[in-house]
Amino acid sequence: MKWGLVxxxxxxxxxxxxxxxAQAGHTVxxxxxxxxxxxxxxxxxxxxxxxxxxxxxxxxxxxxxAVYISTTNEKHFSQAMAAFAAGKHVLCExxxxxxxxxxxxxxxxxxxxxxxxxxxxxxxxxxxxxxxxQIIAEGRLGHVLSVRVFHxxxxxxxxxGWRIDNRDAGGGVIxxxxxxxxxxxxxxxxxxxxxxxxQAVSSGLGEGVEDSVMSVxxxxxGIMVQSHESFTHPYAGSGIEVHGTEGSLFAQxxxxxxxTGTITMTDKDGTVQLNYDRHDLYGYGLKAFNRxxxxxxxxxxxxxxxxxxxxxAMAVARSAREGRAVxxxxxxx
Length: 333
Ligand code: NDP
Fold this sequence. Notes:
One of its GO terms (molecular function) is 1,5-anhydro-D-fructose reductase (1,5-anhydro-D-mannitol-forming) activity. This is 1,5-anhydro-D-fructose reductase (1,5-anhydro-D-mannitol-forming). The chain contains 10 helices and 15 strands. The protein is α/β, with parallel strands linked by helices. The strands form 2 sheets. It has a 9-stranded mixed beta sheet. Strands 3-2-1-4-5-6 form a 6-stranded parallel beta sheet, with helices on both faces.
């Protein structure tokens, strides 16, 4: 399948082009940029045959079967809707949109057109998270009581653009990282956060947007979840802990783009380190996407997963803004 890249982005060049090309029979045919100069330079640098500045021109190419959307967040909705109208399968970056209503429209458009729609939530594709999910599902922790997510990192210098100063482009740490943590917790627990309470601040980087947030989520089963995301913590490290009646699981360095980190489990017999598969996260997601296009199974994270992670993030943002507990509104999904 030939792919069109919508957005001359960092994530496309650092991860996705390589991951697409690593799939047998998959190539990158074109890139869309709002700047002819940047688009051509991106195409040349990455060996892509065509660069366009007009989305309709890219979508009119019949040989392009799927598009990967990785523009700034405010553009995802209109670009995905145009792609569905043109009959292209869509792998879209998170957050899917700036509102849950828009995400719902995207889900409906894909369904009505019979097209595959996936969200690029890479963490659930990681060997570490697949292993954690399996341990929980096998009941090795007993009855799960609580989850703690540590995702306070240092935003790399080269990404300190719209994320830290442009609310209209979907900037802020909640849109950037809380969505990933919401998806990861949903993946592990198999249920959707019900109510959230949150506080957010700017702690040195955010200009008009929050760069740090802490929140507590109530799950329908009663499991408590605590989540911390930040752009300003150079040495905190990332991780997730899952605590149950029969054991506790500590995963360190696993909230990342690479197959890194360690998982240990402590129970009545002591502490053991767990092994897991260290495949490429984005390649794993693409494989599932391509299988879904071929009519087998579903993407690793589909459009509804993206809608739900966005709904949690929107509730966290609202709770922080209004200083009260907020029920997550999944718009009936
Ligand atoms: P970038 O800032 O690198 O790219 C976003 C847009 O910014 C591009 O589409 C491009 O516009 C424009 N742009 C890029 N470089 C320049 C430049 N030098 N000067 C001016 N404009 C420029 O964003 P990211 O790659 O970090 O993120 C893109 C999307 O991917 C976001 O939605 C983000 O949330 C998501 N993301 C997801 C990750 C994941 O693991 N799932 C990880 C990182 C990001 P144009 O296309 O018009 O040229």
